[in-house]
Every structure is written in C-alpha cells, then in structure tokens.
Amino acid sequence: xxxxxxxxxxxxxxxxxxxxxxxxxPAPAPVRAAVRAALDEPLLPYTAVGGLPALRDGLARKLxxxxxxxxxxQHVIVTNGAKQALYQTLYVMTDPGDAVIVMRPHWPAYVATxxxxxxxxxxxxxxxxxxxxxxxxxxxAKVLVVNNPHNPTGRVYTPAELDAIRAxxxxxxxxxxxxxxxxxxxxxxxxxxLAACPDWQALGIATIFSASQxxxxxxxxxxxxxxPAAWIRAMEALQGPITAAVPALTQAAAAAAFAIGAVPDLxxxxxxxxxxxxxxxxxVPWIAVASPASGPYLWGDISAxxxxxxxxxxxxxxxxxxxxxxxxxxxxxxxxxxxxxxDDEATLRRGVAAIxxxxxxxxxxxxxxREADPCRA
Length: 377
Prior knowledge:
transaminase activity, alpha/beta, single chain, about 375 residues, globular, 4-stranded antiparallel β-sheet, Aspartate Aminotransferase, domain 1
C-alpha cells in the first residue's frame, strides 16, 4: 500500500498516507549533530560486524539503566533496523519446520519472516489479559513472539502479565523474542521489559529495539538486539555475509538517539493527535477506535460495516486517495490500522473525513439494499 502511495505521488497526485507511521517530526537535534560531526571525520571505515565497541557498550548501559536488563556489550548487536534484528534472531533460534507462536493482530513482518525461514506459524488471538490460563492453552512451539508495546493496538503489558510469561517460559522451555521498538512511545502507564529478570539468558529471551518510531528516524534504519552471548555471536556470523556492519553514519546516529531517553515534545504531539482522531471517530456508529496506551497507530474495528477491509482499503485509495492498512495484513479482517503521525493537522482531519465519508456511503448503501430485499424478514 505504501509503495502504491509513492507511485501515485510520483505521478503528481496528492495522497494521504495512513498505511504506515511516518513522523512529521525531524530526527532529534543531537542525532543530526552527531552525523554532521561524523561527516567531518577524514574516514568512515568499516566497523566490527556487530557494531562499534563504544556503541555496544553504550547500548548495554542503556539496557541496564532504562530497561533493567543485566546486559553487557557481548549481549548486543547493532542492526539495520528492527526487521534485520528480527530475521537474524529468529534464524539463530530455530530450524526449518519449528513452530513459532504469533499473537494477532500482529506486525506483518513476524509472519513473513517466519515463513521465509521455513517455520510453522501458530497464530493465536491475543486475549484481553495474558495469564497462566491463556498461556497454558498455547500450542507447543520453539519460540513465542511478544510485541510490547504492541503494534497495532497500542497495548502495554503489565508487570503481572510479564511475570506470567516468564513463568510459562520456565515451565515450557520455549524461547521468546520480544519486540520493544515502541518503548518510548507510551502515553498511559509504563513500559517494562520482559528480560528484566536475573535468568533472562537461561530463559532464552531476545529483545529487539529500533530508533525508527521512538526517535522519528524511519529512514535511518537504526536498530539493535539484546540476546544471550552465544546467539549474538551466531547473529554476527550471519550478518557478516548479509550486510556486514551497519553504516558508520547510522551507528553515529544510533549512539546519539539511544542516549537521549524519551522525547517529551514528540510524545506530547502524538498524544494530542491520538486524542483528536479518537474524538473524530467517536460519533461514527460503524467504527470503534479505542484510545491506545502507546504507539503511532490507531486500530479501528469496522466489522459492523464490513469484514472485507482489503476491499475497503482499495476503495479508499482509489476513490479518495487515502491509504490505510487493512486488517487482513495483520491477521484480523474487519479492522483497519491508521498511522496518524504524518503531515499536518489539517491533512490528518481530511484523511479521517475521507474514511468516514466512504464508510457512511457504504452504510447507507447497505441499509438501502436491506430495505429493497423482498426476502428480508
């Protein structure tokens, strides 16, 4: 969908893109300053495949101070964004044919990456509360994938839920990949890391981080993973022939970004936008949009209108030039995902108005069809 937006824009058409989250914020000033300083250096050499030693040390300090994860540099690898970290982590944790549990709705990359590696994906519906009863009912699998904070619902797991997952991992012997890319985009509550426990390495917990959304650095491709040292060595061996080290400029940007901590201005802006869009949808009878506790997305339930959200998304981009992500891509027909952080407020309002206009037309057509149906009871 995002590629279609780019093609339309190349043709000179105006398109509002809610299909992914593209921040209207610039990258933080310390990040841009760090890159300018790096460009003044006479050389930008290859670095160690896993990242500059100083950067890995700094990321390990961040993990200890902010996430409560007892990590050292040997537990960290710097990657080209979260997707590369996910691929390499899943690669070294599994063999083809192994089962991986993914809770839906899900970031599409979890399923696509598992399929690419020849893994068997076990899709389960994410419950309102993750507890022992839910976990005990899960199928046997090599790896459980957890997304906290969650894309697309914005859910933030509670300490009790994380405790339940740890207990289940100990009992089952299942490993876990935790995607914490949105850790700095929490509006309500607080973020806690699953690996913040003394036995995280024995449990086999790998944690993925990204600067893309938390620091408005989508195109910088700056991410990293924290995992047991043996897995990190294997990930380095894999990364070497794939891409070698992350570009030196990206590493300079990552060092500056992850040293910042939170970005209050960005978070306040996103919170205001979240509240605006939720309020705009509130009086619309055919859509339910909960106010998310975190993240750059809104998750809308339009099952009262249609379960074919792929068709809804197609009509929206063809007739109104507004792009959204249909729920089918995230495992849940009847839902739509909106990235609400791009462009200005006026554009945001126009995009929401277009979604409401299409839905109202479909609702009216459906009601007229029911009235005209001679077989209607």
